[in-house]
Amino acid sequence: MHPKMRLVVNFAFVLSILLTCLVVIEFFGSKIISSTEFNDKINITDEAIEFYKTHSAELHHLRDLDDDRWHLSENPSNALFTIIAPFLNTQKNILIQGDSWAEQFDLPASREYLERFANEKQVGIINAGSTSYAPSVMAVQINKLRRQFDIHPEHIVAIIDQTDIGDELCRYAIRRNFDDANRLIGIRPEPFESNETYKLELFFRKQAILRSDKMALQKFLESAVLKIQHNFRKEKRRCKWPEISRPLTQGISKEEAEDFISAVDRYIEAVFSDGRVKSLHIIVHPHSNHFSQDIQDRYVLYAGELIQQAIHSNKHENKIVLLDFLNQNIGSYLDRPTEEIFKEGDPSSHLNDQIFASELTPRIFQELAKRL
What is the pLDDT at residue 75? Predict the structure, then answer.
């Protein structure tokens, strides 16, 4: 064989080997980046990811990206709110706000009660509860729901949890965004460097890589580099559970109390900035540690005291109903042992699903029915 021909043949052989290796690498790379171990949000649609990115820009974060629970691929807006009974202009409508306590209204037993209530009273009900939401985020959220989703309730149920104090002081105080008139207009999401629970920028950047048209190997390498960049730049986590619970375990300063009361006041003002709102029902409930027999474990602060101060100093006081399950003799089930009331092993002291559905939910909506 002519030397030049042999060189061409050898080159072609080597090239074919390289191409074969590239195809094999691409095949296995595609398998890796398409696995739920590498990308646990692989089944969530681009539309749902974009919805989450757009609206978390003002709200710090939305509900957990749990497609099985919230069916985000079917309806991305479920990341922000769920419709239990549709709002209609011909009837009175109710909006629920709050943190993961409010999310519990979407569990089957409570949702069934609300659907019956809506049918009997001919009202619409939307649940906008989202994990770790506190008054500042709720204030921004109610404005967003009105402005961008045409959701205009006449009655609002707001659960303000004990941990909202820590959330406000630690998680949101440094993320609040005010306009030139000192109006709260947003809660900025965590930056790329953040190592907080609700860090989203790393997630969004990784999803942009994985959902691009690049080769699988390139996606894999860019994702690895992104992870290394984040690990190199990430900040020390500031809002672990001890810091979120600190106000309850150790108390707060006068300045911190004023900050939280101001956050509640801003929320109330946001609620009644729409003249169509007839009533705001604020729900406050104790945690199991408020009943602890061990003085070392017993909480020293109760959110209801601060909320009451905010209500009494607000011009809309006569439109606000405070349902305090510790001090108003409406939580008779609280006489039971705490292990029968609260979820076992839950530091945030959520009510167990049965108590939430059969005790808390009816008490709230029976009181609300008086205002319809």
Answer: 93
Map tokens 């709260």 to a residue.
184
DSSP 97-158: EESHHHHGGGSHHHHHHHHHHHHHHTEEEEE---TT--HHHHHHHHHHHHHHH----SEEEE
Span 150-205, pLDDT tens digits: 999 999 999 999 999 999 999 999 999 999 988 999 999 999 999 999 999 999 99
Taking the CB of residue 36, how many other CB atoms lie within 10 A of it?
Answer: 9
Closest C-alpha among 98, 57, 81 to residue 267: 98
| 8 A C-beta contact, residue 43 and residue 73 | yes
pTM reported for the whole predicted model: 0.90
Sole residue written with tokens 């994702």: 223
DSSP 284: E
Contact 96, 129 (CB under 8 A): yes
What is the set of domains in the chain, with CATH numbers? 46-198+237-369 (3.40.50.1110)
How many helices (H) and strands (E) would you count in the chain? Answer: 14, 8
Cβ-proximal residues to 199 (8 Å cutoff; 6+ apart), any chain: 190
CA nearest neighbour of 245 among 148, 313, 333, 164: 164
- The answer on pLDDT for 32 being more than 70 is no
